[in-house]
């Protein structure tokens, strides 16, 4: 019995190399009559045709795909790039992440690839370090690459590869920037730059190609899309917008910022900044209500011995971190701007809002006061007569007082109060003001403290009920009801109009 061995060639299946196999062939008898060749005992030949179909498939990112040298594919959604080496794929992935690990030590510029850094580093070397020199007599230019050298030598030979594509123009140039300059000067409107926008109807031009590419996005009608849930749910296809401005206008008009608080009834806002500021008020109110709730250990918010509830300030009490620094002023505010405005108007006497009506010299510290003044004082006489409100009368009297009031001077009469008494007497004589009725008040009032001032007649004169209430509270410690004071002032003004003496009862 004889034996022989044969080697079966290896094959590639699914990207993996199979191990080599050795086949042992045995001959049953050496009889000449029954000679048999080794081929009789060989196994069936390996069917390469049947395996070629299998070997043409490989596994890429867990999927069976057709065989290709670029089997390292980018896993970023929407990117179909593929590479033959993992290192090239890693370099490509940096374009998605923005990572630039290769930094120049001389100028801090960074790059995605090491080859880009090496090419940049050569820019810091002198021209004498460039290995490739121009062979043209009298030319001392040197280059880093053969491509740059070949282009330069073409200039010596008169090569002009850049031909103008405009019809009936046969101009040709050695460099691309020369061709662009020719197109701008000969075939474009005056003042055009090197890179022209080719969009139909657009006449803009730019100095660099990068700026042109950025501008070309403007002509993309599907550049922006609305991702609001209501638009996505109701529309079968996304809604696209050509510019960011149009998208923002769509969001403001169709999807305006809305307060979801039940007490606001879907109140709309012009911007998200306004909505955030509004929601902050809801949060502060919730905290204040919890602090005021006696069941949760809240403080009693009564004012004084009368037990009346304390008046709520606009905007609440929380967040008032900016206090006026003027001595004796206890005002506090929620922003530095509000505190500065208060200081300028109240303590420095600034009046930046002046009435532009001819013959009216009124000025105000706040814009809303000027608007109220214009609406009430400079409206038509019919509107003034129809309203007949005491506030309108107060406004007229205040204007008359300002016109009749002489300029104040820091003299001895002003310091001692004699000037005020003189002015007050003149106003009383002209029936444009009334004297403070303290201590014989003709309406119900509550004394806030025991210090009620002098028992004599008060020299303060006023023309508005608001001024009287403030004066009584500050100077005499008397808190009078607003409605009672307003009713008494209206009656007192009516008496002044009829030239009847004011009864001090």
Automatic annotation (TrEMBL):
<dbReference type="GO" id="GO:0005634">
    <property type="term" value="C:nucleus"/>
</dbReference>
<dbReference type="Pfam" id="PF00096">
    <property type="entry name" value="zf-C2H2"/>
</dbReference>
<feature type="domain" description="C2H2-type">
    <location>
        <begin position="162"/>
        <end position="192"/>
    </location>
</feature>
<feature type="domain" description="C2H2-type">
    <location>
        <begin position="72"/>
        <end position="101"/>
    </location>
</feature>
<feature type="region of interest" description="Disordered">
    <location>
        <begin position="286"/>
        <end position="316"/>
    </location>
</feature>
<dbReference type="GO" id="GO:0008270">
    <property type="term" value="F:zinc ion binding"/>
</dbReference>
<feature type="region of interest" description="Disordered">
    <location>
        <begin position="380"/>
        <end position="404"/>
    </location>
</feature>
<keyword id="KW-0862">Zinc</keyword>
<keyword id="KW-0805">Transcription regulation</keyword>
<dbReference type="GO" id="GO:0006357">
    <property type="term" value="P:regulation of transcription by RNA polymerase II"/>
</dbReference>
<keyword id="KW-0539">Nucleus</keyword>
<feature type="domain" description="C2H2-type">
    <location>
        <begin position="353"/>
        <end position="383"/>
    </location>
</feature>
<keyword id="KW-0863">Zinc-finger</keyword>
<feature type="compositionally biased region" description="Acidic residues">
    <location>
        <begin position="388"/>
        <end position="398"/>
    </location>
</feature>
<dbReference type="InterPro" id="IPR051061">
    <property type="entry name" value="Zinc_finger_trans_reg"/>
</dbReference>
<feature type="compositionally biased region" description="Polar residues">
    <location>
        <begin position="30"/>
        <end position="40"/>
    </location>
</feature>
<keyword id="KW-0677">Repeat</keyword>
<feature type="domain" description="C2H2-type">
    <location>
        <begin position="132"/>
        <end position="161"/>
    </location>
</feature>
<protein>
    <recommendedName>
        <fullName>C2H2-type domain-containing protein</fullName>
    </recommendedName>
</protein>
<keyword id="KW-0804">Transcription</keyword>
<dbReference type="InterPro" id="IPR013087">
    <property type="entry name" value="Znf_C2H2_type"/>
</dbReference>
<feature type="domain" description="C2H2-type">
    <location>
        <begin position="102"/>
        <end position="129"/>
    </location>
</feature>
<keyword id="KW-0479">Metal-binding</keyword>
<dbReference type="InterPro" id="IPR036236">
    <property type="entry name" value="Znf_C2H2_sf"/>
</dbReference>
<feature type="domain" description="C2H2-type">
    <location>
        <begin position="322"/>
        <end position="352"/>
    </location>
</feature>
<feature type="domain" description="C2H2-type">
    <location>
        <begin position="195"/>
        <end position="224"/>
    </location>
</feature>
<feature type="region of interest" description="Disordered">
    <location>
        <begin position="28"/>
        <end position="52"/>
    </location>
</feature>
């Amino acid at each position: 019995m004889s034996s022989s061995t044969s080697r079966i060639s290896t094959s590639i299946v699914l990207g993996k190399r199979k191990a080599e196999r050795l086949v042992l062939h045995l001959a049953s008898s050496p009889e000449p009559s029954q000679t048999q060749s080794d081929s009789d005992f060989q196994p069936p030949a390996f069917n390469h045709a049947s395996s070629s179909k299998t070997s043409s498939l490989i596994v890429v990112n867990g999927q069976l795909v057709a065989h290709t040298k670029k089997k390292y594919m980018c896993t970023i959604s929407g990117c179909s790039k593929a590479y033959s080496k993992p290192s090239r794929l890693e370099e490509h992935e940096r374009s998605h992440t923005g990572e630039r690990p290769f930094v120049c030590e001389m100028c801090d510029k960074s790059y995605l690839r090491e080859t880009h850094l090496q090419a940049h580093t050569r820019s810091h070397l002198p021209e004498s370090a460039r290995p490739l020199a121009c062979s043209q007599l009298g030319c001392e230019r040197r280059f880093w690459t053969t491509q740059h050298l070949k282009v330069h030598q073409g200039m010596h030979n008169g090569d002009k590869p850049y031909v103008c594509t405009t019809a009936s123009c046969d101009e040709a140039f050695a460099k691309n920037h020369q061709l662009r300059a020719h197109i701008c000067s000969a075939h474009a409107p005056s003042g055009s730059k090197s890179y022209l926008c080719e969009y139909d109807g657009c006449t803009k031009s730019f100095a660099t190609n990068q700026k042109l590419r950025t501008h070309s996005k403007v002509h993309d009608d599907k550049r922006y899309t609305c991702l609001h849930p209501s638009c996505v749910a109701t529309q079968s296809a996304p809604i696209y917008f050509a510019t960011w401005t149009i998208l923002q206008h769509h969001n403001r008009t169709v999807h305006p910022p809305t307060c979801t608080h039940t007490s606001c009834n879907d109140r709309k806002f012009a911007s998200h900044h306004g909505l955030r500021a509004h929601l902050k008020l809801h949060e502060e109110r919730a905290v204040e209500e919890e602090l005021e709730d006696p069941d949760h250990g809240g403080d009693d918010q009564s004012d004084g011995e009368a037990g009346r509830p304390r008046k709520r300030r606009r905007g609440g009490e929380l967040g008032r971190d900016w206090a006026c620094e003027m001595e004796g002023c206890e005002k506090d505010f929620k922003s530095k701007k509000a505190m500065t405005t208060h200081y300028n108007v109240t303590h420095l006497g600034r009046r930046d809002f002046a009435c532009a009506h001819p013959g009216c010299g009124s000025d105000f510290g706040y814009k809303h006061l000027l608007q109220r003044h214009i609406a009430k004082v400079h409206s038509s006489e019919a509107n003034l007569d129809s309203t007949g409100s005491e506030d309108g009368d107060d406004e007229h009297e205040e204007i008359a007082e300002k016109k009749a009031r002489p300029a104040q001077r820091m003299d001895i009469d002003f310091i001692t109060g004699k000037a005020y008494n003189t002015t007050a007497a003149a106003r009383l004589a002209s029936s444009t003001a009334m004297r403070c009725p303290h201590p014989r008040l003709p309406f119900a009032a509550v004394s806030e403290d025991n210090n009620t001032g002098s028992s004599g007649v008060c020299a303060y004169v006023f023309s508005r009920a608001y001024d009287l209430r403030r004066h009584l509270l500050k100077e005499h410690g008397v808190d009078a009801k607003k409605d009672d004071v307003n009713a008494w002032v209206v009656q007192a003004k009516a008496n002044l109009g009829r030239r009847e003496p004011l009864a001090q009862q």
